[in-house]
Amino acid sequence: MLIPSQPMSRRRLLRSAGGAALALPFLEAMGPSLGRRVLGNDQSVDAERAPKRFVAICASLGFHGDHLFPESTGRDYAITPYLEQVQRHRDDFSLFSGLSHPEQNGNNGHASELTWLTAARRPGLAGFRNSISLDQLIAREIGLKTRFPFLALTTGGQSLSWTSSGVEIPAQHSPAKLFTAMFVDGKPHEVEADLDRLRRGRSVLDTVGLRAQSLKRELGIRDQQKLDEYLHSIRDLESRLQQSEGWVRRPKPVVDEEPVSDINDKALAIERQRLMYRIIALALQTDSTRTVTFQLAGLNSVPQIPGVQSDWHGLSHHGKDPEKIAELKRIEAAEWGAFGEFLDQLKSIEEHNRSLLDHTAVMFGSNLGNASAHDWRNLPILLAGGGYRHGKYVAHDAANNTPLCNLYVDLAQRMGLEIDAFGSSTSAGIKGLESTT
C-alpha cells in the first residue's frame, strides 16, 4: 500500500484530476442538468407496443395512518378520508402497509428520506454512504431510449435520485424550465451552443479520466477503489453525452399546451404539486422520459389551505392532539386530491388502445410511517397502474415488516431489468402484487 507523505486534500485531488474548477461531485451529477437541455420525443418507439414507465412520488412529511389505512383488508375495504380523494380510481391502485427498509435510524428524524429509493442503512450516520436509487438503476438500463434518461423532480427539497457512487442527483424544482427544455426548440445558434457544450464536456471527461488514472499511484487501496468508482461514473456519463448529441438536432414534440409559469409562493404548496404533476404527465405522454422521481417537500411554515393556520411540519408532530390532527388532515387530504388529479390525467390519455396509466407504474407513499414519531416502519405505499391487478388493501406484518425492496425488484423487472435482488430485498415481489400479464 502506498501512503502519501502528507494528507491529500480534496482540493489537491481535484487539481490533479484536471483543475480545481472540476469538482468531482459536479462531474458525477452533470447528467440531469445536461438532460434538462435536451428533452424531447423518442421517434424509435415500437408502434406496436407502448413503452413501460415508472414514477415514484414521496411525501416527505408522511400521512396520518388513521385517515389512510382501512380497518379491513382485501377488496371490500371501507373507504377512508384520504382514499376518498382517489376513490374513482379504486380499481386502478393497490394500497400496502407493513413495508419498510431495515435500519433506517439515522442522524435525524427525516434522514430516511435519503434512502427511500436506495434502502442504504443508517442514513447520515458516521460511515454512511448511499447506494444507487431504483430509478437510476432503471435509467441505466433504458434511459438512452429517450431524450431525457430520467427526471429527478421536487417541489423544493431533497432529491430522491442517487448515482451508483452514492452521489445525490440535483432535482429540478422549476416546472417552467422543465417545460421549456422538453417542448421549446432552441434557435439555431442555441442548438450549436448546446452541441459545443456537449463536445467540450466529453473532452473534459477524457482529460479527467486520464489524469485520475495517473493519480492512483499516490493512493491507498480504499482510495483507489473510490477512484475506480468515479472513473466508472465518467464512462457512464460519456455514453450519455454521446447519446445526447444525437437528440440535440431533433425537433422537440409539439404539445397543445402554453408554456407555464412557476408558482414562487411556497405557501401555495398544493398548487405547486399540481403544476409539476401536469408537466410529468406531458413528459410521459410525449415519451420524453420513462423514469420519474418526484419529492413532495413539506413546509416549516403555514400552507395556504382553507382551515389551516399552523406550521405544516409542526402539525406532522401532532402528538395525538385532535386539533392538530384535524388541521393536518386538511393538508394531507389536499395532497391526495392533487395526486388523484394526476391519476385522472394519466387515465384520460389513450395509448395503444389503453390508458397511459395502464402503461405507467406509479408508486405514491412516504419514507415515514408515523411522522409524529419519526418512525420509518410500516410505510404507506400505494401502487397505481402499471399492468397490475388492483382494487385491494394488503396489510403485511406490522411487527416484522416485509422489505420494501421486494416490491422494488418486481418494479425493476417490469421495466425490463434482469435482476433478482435490490438493496435489502429477500425475494422478488410482495404478497398482494399480481401482474395482469
Automatic annotation (TrEMBL):
InterPro entries: DUF1552 (IPR011447), TAT_signal (IPR006311). It comes from the Bacteria. This is Secreted protein containing DUF1552. It comes from Rhodopirellula baltica (strain DSM 10527 / NCIMB 13988 / SH1).
